[in-house]
Amino acid sequence: MKQIMTKEATSDRDAIPKKWLITGGCGFIGTSLIRYLRKKVPDARIRVMDNLTVGTREDLSTVCEYKEIERHDSKALAADDGWKTAVQLVVADIKDADACISCTQGMEAVVHLAANTGVAPSVENPRADMEANVVGTFNMLEASRQNGVGRFVLASSGAPIGEVEPPIHEELAPHPVSPYGASKLACEGYCSAYYRSFGLETVALRFGNVYGPGSKHKSSVVAKFIKQSFNGETLEIYGDGKQTRDFVYIDDLSRAILLAASRRGIGGEAFQIATNSETTVAEVVELLKAVFEKKGLAFSEVVHSAPRVGDVKRNFSDTSKAKKSLGWTPLVALPDGIEKTVDWFG
């Protein structure tokens, strides 16, 4: 296999995949990852599996040309020479086990991004959260095992750990607060089991709060407040605004995913992917306000409401394991990343 080396992936421990399946690839992280891979691994062939409930065909078309393949077209899915463009799209749901088997044919790496995301939706409908996250992840793992996929990268979060004294690290015992945290913990557990029982090289990445250009469908604080302020809507902070999060820029996250899919000797491991820094929601609002004022833009009024059920008060990550084992550190500081994000929305 021809290896395209990036600045971070330069050792003989790396084996960069050529054929990728990205579930949820039409979403914010998926499209950003595709853009990144097309730049860093130009000979990559990428298959996107997405049910289009959040991301759209139009979102995918902003980052690449693609060919849509029917999930029942087994000949096209199995053919090595069936790539008319570097990216294929299969419209299918991860809860469909047969579709998962079809889409993983011939893949060397699976990046499993498709999921029910967020605490609030999981509290409102815990069954839907479980079915999408736990059943969907199981289907993808089993399909990957059956089709001999080499590496499986799971998008997880700090939610499995729950309410603990930060920084969060990989050795902490999990005590999830929300159904979302519980479902992601189950996903991590299945990844560990599939590595240790079947040898499928799984890697769980616990994402911090991801932000950046392309996040128009995101409902988390940075994207939501930018959209609301551009629309002249009031910004609502749940609680006193002193709750903290660890915000990671999308390009830094994409680098981490590429390394997780490529670095040898990390099967069965989990990594915190964040910035090892603690920022309050109120501080994020002040950073946004400063950028808006710098650009001569009106910034919306801020109001406070009751805290949300299932939200943790403090959350930031110790990323030393990712630095040691992946050679990964974040490069984009929060003020710079926020300005880039505001520019994209503007």
Describe the structure.
The protein is α/β, with parallel strands linked by helices. The protein contains 12 helices and 14 strands. The protein has helices at 28-40, 57-61, 74-78, 97-103, 119-124, 126-146, 179-198, 221-230, 250-262, 281-294, 320-326, 334-345, and strands at residues 19-23, 45-50, 67-68, 87-91, 109-112, 151-157, 201-207, 209-211, 235-238, 244-245, 247-249, 269-273, 279-280, 302-305. Helix 8 (221-230) packs across helix 12. The radius of gyration is 19 Å and the shape is globular. The termini are far apart.
Specify the oligomeric state.
Answer: single chain
**CA radius of gyration:** 19 Å
Q: Report how far the terminal alpha carbons are from each other.
A: 42 Å
Q: Helix proportion of residues, in percent?
A: 25-40%
What key attributes describe this structure?
disordered N terminus; alpha/beta; 14 strands; two-stranded parallel ribbon
Topology, element by element:
Layout: E1 19-23, H1 28-40, E2 45-50, H2 57-61, E3 67-68, H3 74-78, E4 87-91, H4 97-103, E5 109-112, H5 119-124, H6 126-146, E6 151-157, H7 179-198, E7 201-207, E8 209-211, H8 221-230, E9 235-238, E10 244-245, E11 247-249, H9 250-262, E12 269-273, E13 279-280, H10 281-294, E14 302-305, H11 320-326, H12 334-345
Parallel strand pairs: 1-2, 1-5, 2-4, 3-4, 5-6, 6-7, 7-12, 8-11, 9-14
Antiparallel strand pairs: 10-13
Helix pairs in contact: 1-9, 4-6, 6-7, 8-10, 8-12, 10-12
